[in-house]
């Protein structure tokens, strides 16, 4: 791949030119990695490159931290159970602005940069969109010079690796630390005690006030690991601090002295299990004790750390809301609200009302889902066992909150039941979203429609109580990773025409608009896409042994496998195309390659069934000589950030086809459009705002909108009616039912047929099928006009500026956090 000639901002610095890099690489190979160039492997060179890169970040990282300290600035703490970072090497090199020099140095050493960067393990401490959002936000906070810290868990095992065996998903552990993580700095001295279990003792203090002690606890230590987060073309390097669980002591001395060495070590392992593994569950919550403990573990350590940093500068807590903003990424860290109350009231003796005022001004919460089954609740008995004092505090918060509601709405008992932090089920459950709603000064949705639905549905009662609390901040993505890094050829083409200002100000892409009418530019733009398609086709041939036609329409649906995302609807269309080719083999069928990628939660049976059906359909279609290269179906295994970076630049059609009202925002939709794919999608999540930006004539919208969905559900959706009335659909469904794609086991996919028919088709695939197929036909009509397709693709790219994560972060900073950028001093020359 050609070099990326963007920014050379740092070239005036010693060590940042090609000669400096080369010296540094040679030195690090020997003195950091301890290898002789004669025997060095690609892996040795990757770790060498990482050492050279990280060395160049450290001074700026330290200076950034010093500048925050000097300015006594308000800091933002982004608390997230997940950070889906992907690979770091080239991202750091590009953000430092010295990719050409680095590349030259590597090549002059006779090394293969493409091979070296592939060695890096994809850091996947997250499931999907939510974790990737956190990663994009860290990049944007650093790029904007905002004092933003990521806080999370250093899982020993990240998101599982997906393999496909006999068409089925098989999960393998993601042992990402096996060869060591070159980006992290262990901080064995940054260690906090985290308590669990035990009981609460009441006592009267010197002034006779009732106080609480949490005693007889089981304790675990949290140890910090820091990772530098470089902004793009800036001195700012922020910090992500992840916590690992360590036993309070290495051994239980009691057992040790008894001579029971093994038992003594076992106890140590048990407590260290807390940060062992990421829960590979997307959107549906799991009621597992270990997960609750993970949440409290990282929240407790993070709050201790945040308050320690605050206390270096400040007496008392009155200034806390002026110095600290804590963003809760979903309800996973919402226990922080009760924890801060506990620290202030039990630990420091603040009055409840005073502590509550401070707490509310510190916290804000991002909601990511409206689906009731995904809203986190914890059984009260479990909560009481694990966090007895926090349960008491939540009861007290609830008591005072419900009293306030009663004053405002006397006699409305139904309202009290609806808004209570405690669900009156059996057993009772703690509603974490309600805790977050009550304990935060701002709560945001992640796309305009999602925020509006929050106000109208799940949080309608709260919205009436506090009409200013729920705000919208539409998600965004970082253009550094998702365009500059993932699609260097397109980045270069854009820079050649409008300069590189868009990398920090994505709205500047608007200046490409006139070029949509420029035939030469369209040609160049089309050539970039074609080269990306060819590269992906080669990778597919190599990895999966499927020959795809690089001139076919690359139709891409990559995201977690979930019924609401409707990969099955896409597949119904694929089978429809297949049947049309079979019915008219000599017809003029547009060649199409349908690419799927995505993981299913290991316990989500239907999602796994869908993966199997995709692979079964692929097997039949790809081997049918009648089809030839006019239709290919490809399931690319192990969709992660790195595979996303390979697939997205080659996509031409972006499938964003969730049932209206189910996808909070989506960010995959933004990545694909920014890389010049046209979207076929429903009026759901950020698709609506993408339509508003790119223009309705440059996007393929189909299907029911949220009102249509609500109305249909109210009237009663009858899948059998569609089955009877639509012959093409019926044929497709019958093939699935009768085992056309699994002749060796004809009943294999019967459950899918049943879900779509007798099961009531809860995600309304059959209701949207006809319109979807019609829209796909329009897609083909436009695609046959290459110039028109390219014109629309250029306009899509030109109009995606709004979906930069920089814009999202500016909105958070202004509307929710009230924080301002701090510019570190330029590093003195050595
Ligand atoms: C962006 C991204 C997602 C989110 O995709 P959606 O289409 O918004 O669901 C999931 N996984 C990975 C690896 C991503 O990069």
TrEMBL record:
It catalyses: [(1->4)-alpha-D-glucosyl](n) + phosphate = [(1->4)-alpha-D-glucosyl](n-1) + alpha-D-glucose 1-phosphate. It comes from Thiobacter aerophilum. Keywords: Carbohydrate metabolism, Glycosyltransferase, Pyridoxal phosphate, Transferase. Belongs to the glycogen phosphorylase family. Its EC number is 2.4.1.1. It is an enzyme of class 2 (transferase). CDD domains: GT35_Glycogen_Phosphorylase. Its cofactor is pyridoxal 5'-phosphate. InterPro entries: Glycg_phsphrylas (IPR011833), Glyco_trans_35 (IPR000811), Pyridoxal_P_attach_site (IPR035090). GO terms for molecular function: 1,4-alpha-oligoglucan phosphorylase activity. It comes from the Bacteria. SUPFAM superfamilies: UDP-Glycosyltransferase/glycogen phosphorylase (SSF53756). The keyword Methyltransferase does not apply. This is Alpha-1,4 glucan phosphorylase.
């Amino acid at each position: 791949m050609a070099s990326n000639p963007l920014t050379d901002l740092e070239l005036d610095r010693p060590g940042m030119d090609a000669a400096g890099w080369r010296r540094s690489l040679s030195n690090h190979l020997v003195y950091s990695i301890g290898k002789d160039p004669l025997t060095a492997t690609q892996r040795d060179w990757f770790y060498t490159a990482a050492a050279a890169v990280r060395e160049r970040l450290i001074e700026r990282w330290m200076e950034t931290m010093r500048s925050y300290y000097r300015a006594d600035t308000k800091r933002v703490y982004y608390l997230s159970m997940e950070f889906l970072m992907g690979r770091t090497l080239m991202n750091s090199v590009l953000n430092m602005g010295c990719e050409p020099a680095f590349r030259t140095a590597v090549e002059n050493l006779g090394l293969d940069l493409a091979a070296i960067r592939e060695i890096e393990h994809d850091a996947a401490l997250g499931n999907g969109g939510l974790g990737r959002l956190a990663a994009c936000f860290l990049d944007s906070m650093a790029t904007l010079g905002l004092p933003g810290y990521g806080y999370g868990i250093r899982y020993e095992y990240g998101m599982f690796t997906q393999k496909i065996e006999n068409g089925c998903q098989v999960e393998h552990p993601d042992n990402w630390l096996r060869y060591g993580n070159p980006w992290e700095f262990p901080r064995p001295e940054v260690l906090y005690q985290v308590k669990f279990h035990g009981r609460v003792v009441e006592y009267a203090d010197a002034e006779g006030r009732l106080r609480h002690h949490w005693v007889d606890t089981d304790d675990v230590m949290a140890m910090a690991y820091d990772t530098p987060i470089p902004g793009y073309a800036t001195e700012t390097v922020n910090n992500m601090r992840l916590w690992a669980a360590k036993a309070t002591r290495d051994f239980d001395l009691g057992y040790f002295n008894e001579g029971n060495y093994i038992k003594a070590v076992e106890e140590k392992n048990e407590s260290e299990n807390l940060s062992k593994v990421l829960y590979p569950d997307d959107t549906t919550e799991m009621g597992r004790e270990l997960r609750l403990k993970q949440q409290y573990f990282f929240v407790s350590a993070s709050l201790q750390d945040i308050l320690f940093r605050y206390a270096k500068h400040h007496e008392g807590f009155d200034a806390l809301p002026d110095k600290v903003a804590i963003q809760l990424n979903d309800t996973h860290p919402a226990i922080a609200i009760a924890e801060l109350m506990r620290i202030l009231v039990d630990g420091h003796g603040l009055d409840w009302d005073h502590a509550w005022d401070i707490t509310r001004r510190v916290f804000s919460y991002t909601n990511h889902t409206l689906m009731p089954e995904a809203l986190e609740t914890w059984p009260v008995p479990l909560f009481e066992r694990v966090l007895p004092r926090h349960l008491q505090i939540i009861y007290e918060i609830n008591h005072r909150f419900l009293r306030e509601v009663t004053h405002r709405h006397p006699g409305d008992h139904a309202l009290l039941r609806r808004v209570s932090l405690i669900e009156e089920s059996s057993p009772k459950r703690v509603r974490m979203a309600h805790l977050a709603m009550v304990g935060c000064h701002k709560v945001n949705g992640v796309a305009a429609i999602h925020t509006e639905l929050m106000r109208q549905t799940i949080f309608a009662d709260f919205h009436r109580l506090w009409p200013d609390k729920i705000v919208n901040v539409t998600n965004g993505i970082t253009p550094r990773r998702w365009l500059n890094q993932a699609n260097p050829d397109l980045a270069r083409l854009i820079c050649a025409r409008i300069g590189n200002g868009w990398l920090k100000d994505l709205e500047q892409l608007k200046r490409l608009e006139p070029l949509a009418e420029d035939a030469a530019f369209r040609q160049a733009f089309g050539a970039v896409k074609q080269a990306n398609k060819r590269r992906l086709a080669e990778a597919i041939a190599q990895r999966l042994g499927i020959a795809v036609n690089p001139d076919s329409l690359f139709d891409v649906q990559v995201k977690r496998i979930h019924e609401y995302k409707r990969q099955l609807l896409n597949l119904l269309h694929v089978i429809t195309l297949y049947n049309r080719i079979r019915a008219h083999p000599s017809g003029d069928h547009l060649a199409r390659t349908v690419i799927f990628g995505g993981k299913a939660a290991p316990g989500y049976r239907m999602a796994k069934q869908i993966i199997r059906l995709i692979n079964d359909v692929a097997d039949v279609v790809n081997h049918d000589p009648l089809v030839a290269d006019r239709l290919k179906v490809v399931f690319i295994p192990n969709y992660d950030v790195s595979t996303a970076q390979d697939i997205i630049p080659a996509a031409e059609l972006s499938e964003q086809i969730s049932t209206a009202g189910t996808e909070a925002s989506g960010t995959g939709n933004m990545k694909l459009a920014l890389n010049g794919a046209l979207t076929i999608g429903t009026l759901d999540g950020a698709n609506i705002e993408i339509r508003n930006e790119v223009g309705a004539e440059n996007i393929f919208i189909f299907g029911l909108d949220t009102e249509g969905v609500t109305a249909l559900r109210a009237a009663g959706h009858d899948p059998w009616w569609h089955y009877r009335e639509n012959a093409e659909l019926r044929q497709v469904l019958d093939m699935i039912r009768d085992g056309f794609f699994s002749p060796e086991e004809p009943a294999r996919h019967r459950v899918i047929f049943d879900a779509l028919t007798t099961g009531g088709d809860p995600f309304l695939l059959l209701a949207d099928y006809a319109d979807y197929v019609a829209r796909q036909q329009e897609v083909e009509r436009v695609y046959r006009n290459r110039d028109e397709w390219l014109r629309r693709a250029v306009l899509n790219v030109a109009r995606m500026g709004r979906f930069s994560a920089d814009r999202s972060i500016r909105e958070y900073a202004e509307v929710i956090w009230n924080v301002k950028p701090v510019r570190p001093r330029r590093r003195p020359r050595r």
